[in-house]
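Q: Convert this sequence to C-alpha cells.
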Amino acid sequence: MDEPIEARSEEAALAVARRIAGTKAVTLAFSRAGDPETGEFEDAVLIFSDGELPEELAGALCA
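A:
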C-alpha cells in the first residue's frame, strides 16, 4: 500500500486521483473538513474510486 497523498482541496484531490488512477490497482480519494491545529476532523467522504476493492475493504468503507 502506498502512502496517502494530502491535497489542499477537493478539486486537487480529484486531480491527483485521476492522474494516478491508471497506475494503481485501486485509487481512492476522500474529502474531510476539520481543524489541523486541533486534529479534530469530520468523517471522511469518498469522492473518487477507481479499481476493484477487496471485499473486506469495501465493507469497511460502507460501515
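The radius of gyration is 13 Å.
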